[in-house]
Every structure is written in C-alpha cells, then in structure tokens.
Amino acid sequence: MRKFHTVIAGGGPGGLACATLLALQGKEVLVLERNSEIGPKVCAGGIPAAAQDLGFPEALWERSFTRQQINSNWQHTVIQDAKPIIRTVDRGRLGRWMAERAATAGVTIATNSLVLKISEDRVVTRGGDEFGYDFLVGADGSSSLVRRQMGIPTEKMGVGINYQIAGDFPEMQWHLNTDLFGNGYAWIFPHQDTASIGVYARRSTSKPGLLLNSLHQWAADHGHELKSRQPQAALINFDFRGWRFNNRFLIGDAAGLASGLTGEGIYSAIVSGEETARTILDGGYESSKMVQLIKKHQQHARLLELASGGKLAGKLILETMVFCLRTGLIPFSALEMGINQPS
Questions:
Q1: CB within 8 Å of 40: residues ≥ 6 apart
Q2: pLDDT value, residue 2
Q3: What confidence tens digit (pLDDT) does each residue in 276-295 have?
Q4: 122's torsion region: left (phi>0), alpha (psi -120 to 50) or beta?
Q5: CA-to-CA distance for 150 and 118, rounded, in angstroms?
Q6: If you placed Cys at 15, which of 10, 103, 193, 303 could pair as Cys (CB 3.0 to 4.6 Å)?
Q7: Which of 26-35, 51-60, 78-87, 200-209 has the highest mean predicted lDDT (pLDDT)?
Q8: Domain-by-domain residue ranges, the chain?
Q9: pLDDT by residue (tens digit) across 179-195?
Q10: Kind of pairing, strands 185-190 and 173-176?
Q11: Beta bridge mates, 89
C-alpha cells in the first residue's frame, strides 16, 4: 500500500485546484478520478465575473459577455457592465488544462479509479488498489461517496438538463418562466461555435420528465428544435452541511456548495478546493473566503425557499427579483456565487 499526504476523490475543478496548491508546497497528492478521462461533464459553462481572477489563461475563455438578457413572465431587461459579467468555458478544455497544471506541479492522477471503500486512514478503489492518507478530500460531485460514508445526507438537489447546439448565438439569455420552469430557469449560453441551451430547477418542485418537456416547448417557441437531439442531465447538490471534518474535507458539489438558486458550481468548487488546501497546510488557518462563500450560498438558499412557497408566491418573488435587477436596486452579482472583493 502506498501512502500519500492527501488523497482526493474526484478530478474536477475543485479537486484539481486543491491538489495543485498542495503539490506546489511539496506534498504528495493523489487524485482518484472515476472516469476514463479528466474534464467532460454536463455543464452550461458559465463562469461569473468573480472567477475571472482565478488565473485561467485568456485562451481558455470561449466567449465574454458584458450584457445579460433576462426575461420573465412579465418583464424583459438587459443588464450591462463595462467589464464582462459572465464568461463561458468548455468544461472538457478546462479540466484538461487544470489536470496538466496539476501534473506539472507533481500531482499523481489516476483515472478509472472509483473509490469504493473508505476507512480512517486509507481508501480502496474498484480495481482493488489501496492507498493510505493523512488527509482525505471528497471532491466527487453531487453523488459523493465520501460524503455518504461520512454519514452526511443529501436532501436538497437541483436538476440541470443541457443541449449543446451548433451555431452562432450572439446573446447570453436567462428565461424565468414560472409557468414552465417553476422556480428555475432556461438559458442560452453561447460558446465559440455552439451554445448551451438548457434548464435548471429544484428537483423537489420540478420532475425531470416534465422539466424536459417544458424545455422542449420553450425552445420550440424560440426557434430551437431540441426533441430530436440527445439531452444530457445532471444532479446538482446544494445541501451544504459543512466542509471541514477533522482530517476529512468536502468541497464543491460534494459539500453542497453549488448555488441552489442558479445551479452554478465551478467557482465555488475551485475556491473551496484552494481554501481546503490552505487549511490542510496550516491547521490554524481561518478562511475568510469560505465564510463569504457560505454566506452567499445561504442567501441563495433563502431566496430559493421563498420562491418555492407556491406558484403565485414563486412568481411574485422572481418578478420582484427581475424588477430589482432592472432598476439597479440589486446588482447582477447578487445572483453569482462569487466572493465580494474589497473596494
């Protein structure tokens, strides 16, 4: 059995960010990825403005948008800023770049390595490989085995359905139609030569089959034929119940740090991964970034609960939110899972 300073279950952005930071400080780190390759995942690829200081190379960004079109049952508004509000990335390209950066830093990455068993000081993979650890990080997504084996339940989940459509799409759009999507929304997020067209909603209030039918209806009304195409779907965990448990940690979707309101999770995964690494390196480290991230997550959760209080209540809450965005009473950044930067 080989022992590592830190074993990380999951090779997504959060796990790789954590691994890279630890390896740069000379720690032996193993990333166990259950899939055959790093990168691909069902993802709309929208990254909020706050994430643009994460050190991604400019070539990694696919499109940048200083305008956001927001439509609801009763309103239409365009949010504008001098700087990009949201940029899009290809999830596969992002994963491959982060994996190369991690490997260069000295991280050991093993694909086709699903973690099946966890004990106090070791993990066992489906292939029978056994690895010891001083620290264990669960970065294994919304269905996290690490979380389950720690006895932490997951009750609050969202569902996202995505199509990647070829073509030139000039505008980034959000559609809050409570009659079709309840407290969720449909989106059009343009990439280089394609666009992600999809829908997100809370699973407890929107059954996936009905949500898919609503997406098809909405898309057809907007000139996009989806029914003949193959959709991709994913669950999104926003049931946050903690991230630090002695020598074990949960980050990103495994921790439930995705936004229940919007479903966005890449930024919170990377930040929680980096802050977990800093905490592992220094047991006395107090993460102000995690405090802010959790506070924003709780704000989104409260707003989602209000919007889930019934059809009429949900419609009034979402219409009020759009009105506040349109009039500038709240900034668009309030919908992002970013961290408020000091002025």
A1: 91, 92, 95
A2: 94
A3: 999 999 989 999 999 999 99
A4: beta
A5: 9
A6: 10
A7: 26-35
A8: 2-38+90-155+238-288
A9: 899 889 999 999 999 99
A10: antiparallel
A11: 61
Rounded distance between C-alpha atoms, residue 52 and residue 27, angstroms: 27
Q: Which fold has domain 2-38+90-155+238-288?
A: FAD/NAD(P)-binding domain (3.50.50)
CB burial of 125-162 (b: ≥16 within 10 Å; e: otherwise) equals beeeeebebebbbbbbbbebbbbebbebebebbbbbbb
Question: In this structure, are residues 11 and 138 in contact, taking their beta carbons and an 8 Å threshold?
Answer: no
Token representation of residue 276: 């977990």
Residue where the block lists tokens 């770049």: 97
Exposure string for 254-282, b = 16+ CB within 10 A, e = fewer = bbbbbbbbbbbbbbbbbbbbbbbbbbbbe
Which one-letter amino acid corresponds to residue 121? Answer: D
